[in-house]
Fold this protein.
Amino acid sequence: MTDKSVKLFLLTSVSAMLVIFSACTEERKVIVPFIPVGDRVVLLEEFTGKGCTNCPKGSREIESLLTQFPNHLVAVSIHAGFFADPQTFNIGQYDLRTDEGEFLYSYMSPNLGYPSAVVDRTPVGGILQIGLSQWSSAIVSELEEEPSVELSLTRTYNETTREVTLMVDGIGKQTVTGEIRISVMLTESEIVDAQYDTEAGGLVSNYIHNHVLRDMITPAAGEPLFNDLSVGQTFNHAFSTILNQDWKADYMDMIVFVSVVNGDDFPVLQAASIKVIP
């Protein structure tokens, strides 16, 4: 067989094999990305604690969800409850609990296990604090709804005094009946402290805690704005506070959300966030 014949034989064989393999390969599925309705932004409030060995799974899931729903999801990690109590789990150097966080832990009870989260303060199957496997579908469900409120945030920060001032402007996009409330949270990321982590093999001394609730400028259950909301109704509110010297302003965000209270129901109508330092 000549060199030319050998080359032709090899080329023909390779081509035939490619056809066979192509025939055996399943057709690739095209995943259509989820497109939210309008400018809806969903709030996820996670309950966690440094003593919770499974909670880092929740933290990693939050980062994945923030990537999956960019510009349509804001998250806060609230250290509260049994696994956040330093008297029970004396690890690390910081007590990441807040009075507001402990209130919210009870306000949105019961907690059926860690990690848990509340999505837009809307129950899933009658339960507010839901498990990790339900977070994504709950977010999608909320994003399918038109936003009832449009929010616009502006802020100023004085590096010398560490005073941050936030201006919130809003307009009604739908008619809503009930007491309208506004809440403002301060969160901090890149906090290095200990954390139990099953997937990492146990205690991690230099674990990075993100989206940690540090304080609330409003009352924990929200500050009343007015009763009922109509289409086109506008409102504005200014807030200011002095940041704790131990907090790193470069890694802090302000989370704002508007909710409506009707008896035992208090769903979030819209959320927004802005960095303390752009």
In short: The chain has a mean pLDDT of 89. Residues 3-24 form the longest helix (22 residues). Residues 130 and 246 are 32 Å apart (CA to CA). The chain has one domain: 42-275.
